[in-house]
Amino acid sequence: MIRFYWLLSFFVLVTASFAQTDDAATIQKIYNEALQNGQSYENLRFLTKEIGARLSGSPQAAAAVEWGRQVMDTLGLDRVYLQEVMVPHWVRGAREQGRILSQRSGAGQEVNLCALGNSIGTGPAGVVGEVVEVHGLEELDALGRAQLAGKIVFFNRPFDPALVNTFEAYGGAVDQRGGGASAAAQYGAVGVVVRSMTTRLDDVPHTGSLRYAADVPKIPAVAISTNDADRLSRQLTLEPDLKFYFETHCQMLDDVLSYNVIGEIKGTQFPNEVILVGGHLDSWDLGEGAHDDGAGCVQAMEVLRILKSLGIKPKHTIRAVLFMNEENGLRGGRKYAEVAQANREKHLVAIESDRGGFTPRGFETNASPAQLKRMQGWVTLLAPYGLHEMIAGGGGADIGPLEAQGTVLMEYLPDPQRYFDYHHTNIDTFEAVNRRELELGAAAMASLVYLLDRHGLGKAK
Amino acid sequence: MIRFYWLLSFFVLVTASFAQTDDAATIQKIYNEALQNGQSYENLRFLTKEIGARLSGSPQAAAAVEWGRQVMDTLGLDRVYLQEVMVPHWVRGAREQGRILSQRSGAGQEVNLCALGNSIGTGPAGVVGEVVEVHGLEELDALGRAQLAGKIVFFNRPFDPALVNTFEAYGGAVDQRGGGASAAAQYGAVGVVVRSMTTRLDDVPHTGSLRYAADVPKIPAVAISTNDADRLSRQLTLEPDLKFYFETHCQMLDDVLSYNVIGEIKGTQFPNEVILVGGHLDSWDLGEGAHDDGAGCVQAMEVLRILKSLGIKPKHTIRAVLFMNEENGLRGGRKYAEVAQANREKHLVAIESDRGGFTPRGFETNASPAQLKRMQGWVTLLAPYGLHEMIAGGGGADIGPLEAQGTVLMEYLPDPQRYFDYHHTNIDTFEAVNRRELELGAAAMASLVYLLDRHGLGKAK
Fold this sequence. Notes:
The structure is a homodimer of 461-residue chains.
Chain A: H1 2-37, H2 40-51, H3 59-73, E1 79-91, E2 97-101, E3 108-110, E4 113-115, E5 127-134, H4 138-148, E6 152-155, H5 166-171, H6 175-185, E7 191-195, E8 221-224, H7 226-238, E9 243-247, E10 251-265, E11 270-280, H8 290-309, E12 316-323, H9 331-342, E13 346-352, E14 360-365, H10 369-376, H11 379-382, E15 389-392, E16 408-414, H12 419-422, H13 435-455
Parallel strand pairs in A: 5-6, 6-7, 7-8, 11-12, 11-13, 13-16, 14-15
Antiparallel strand pairs in A: 1-10, 2-3, 2-9, 4-8, 5-9, 10-12, 14-16
């Protein structure tokens, strides 16, 4: 009997070891395919250079939907389809401008700015006012209506450069952009100027969405470049009563019909259990949306292409989703989860790539400790490809609504240092993406999908 | 007695745990200093933008020496000095050019090329000949004088894109650049054209040094861009007898007096034992030598600045060395080791940063397995900063000559994906360096120096 157990243990060990070797060989093939025959870079070129910026509701967003469908149609998938979703349609309009009006120098000094997404415009009259500089929303309560009514509030709390993870620095500053306008409006402010969301010091303004609170007047809001924010702050110490003028012509139009783009390989054993990989197809209207999130879209499609090319027949259904409207509404992500719920589709795992096409570092997930531990066991297989991190964390925005259905969320983590150099700007272009870094990201996601499909997630508890 | 041992173990454990906490706190301070008050980026700006390219023997190299000395003079070090070294003085000369001479199309098609470093020039007459394309030096023996005499040999073996580490791909291709000219000349070839050393497909030629064998005629050699290499190869299949023309005006002048730039903080306990951090001050004459190796120089100096700023008084002498002439002679590295030997200086460890200012991955070292194991124990301290790799490998070129004196060599490993996009080209400029990635590299090196100084290397066996 003892001998029997011994033999059994031996058998289990050998099998485990074979599985590991087998996995290593498959992952090597996945990387070879991505690096030798990769299509993600050429797909990104087309999306960014031939279509370009594609804000929800724009003609370019419609073109991107058709492009995504056509690219997936070439992959020999089992199903490619569009999923209807109504999206907001915000437009930037005519030339935006802003000036520091110094009574000392006499002349207005032009600054680099852009309207925040979803903001109302000032119209041709613009808005002008004295400037109150603050470093956080909580300062407004102390200032109150007495000091804020009729003023322009300037939110100037910078990213904390000491945070190694730039996404933490973003998280520590972005409430100014998202909630600053309504917070200032409740004390009678007439406009808001926000320091751009980046650690970099340069002349590039960063847009991004704001959310108006329901019961407060809507006031126009713009982001100015970090160099201009520093300049404005310096000048305010010399001349506290200087004025700032800005003019924007943005407006929110009626909702527009758009689509999530979906393609899938049916699972051989569990066709009703889905492993999802995705990115978002919409982008801001500045630049080309290359890192945010053209990269995630072409990587998600590349995962399917790689599996097909290698003849891997997954046990579970593997689905690539290009979500619409992540940037200013999240309608695509919400609609997707709603339909999944209605159709009783079971999503085991959803993996999002929405942190740019940079060199791979790993993944984060909201999986249970036991599941995370199992995935951490895969790091020995992934470390040779630079994937050392398998950590607890959230998932991406688009897949978030699936969490309520018990889906394990995962987010691809490329290196975060350069992301906020480009995020929501006119320099987020194809040229800012390195081919190999993009391809390695696609291979990383394909490898994770392969391991999840083959070995499963394990117990949720 | 048992109780005594128990207490002792407890004491050791507690001490070790305090040490770890203490180390973690110091490393956090090092990173805060690098990211909040870093000087490396501004120093790099000056070196690249105000001085620029600085090939050994050039006036710019002399200016860079004086700049390095002056920057170190501001750091409050115990000693800053120059070390004389005679360096080669190769100059590129007037405009270089090359053309594919197609008898079909009638016209010459211009290609993007540059002379390889140390090459002789063609002079105004240029060199012209039919082209023999090969993919490796070994193919020349089979072709022999019969097929190579009077010809231009075109070395066109590309980087292997499937290698995740681009330095391995470089190692697999660079013999064509380094040894191709003499290998071809021994069979009577009149010139050499080499595919640029990069995975990227673009129009940028990459220079780099060649070595002429002693007993073979010297023939001129150039690198052409990867796009042009693909074009030339395609046209050769259509028109095998097409000719190629190129003209270069480079030449090797007499040796010039130059300097290694050295600064140090004296050790409090072991002033005669040195921990060295370094990069090389010279660069190729194209571009600005930002990643190669302005980054390594400013990082080495930043290590000393950070230690001084934090009031860390190292036990061993910490020395920053800006080596001269890594690119086309290694005279600085050789001279440094020679002087160290003559002065009986003991170098415990030498750490080089010469793989660009990219996001940190870790270090490699030729240390003994026991020493490596000790250093791998530090990875838990370093991983929060993205430093997961502590692996066996070589050291950098400049520190190599110290190996014979028993010095442990280490090389800083930033992420390798983008390095060969810029290496030895006119696009290796300041703009290609990300501030945070550069600063994180300096902090990585400072943290390693701190740990080495505090805990030592352990046994060499």
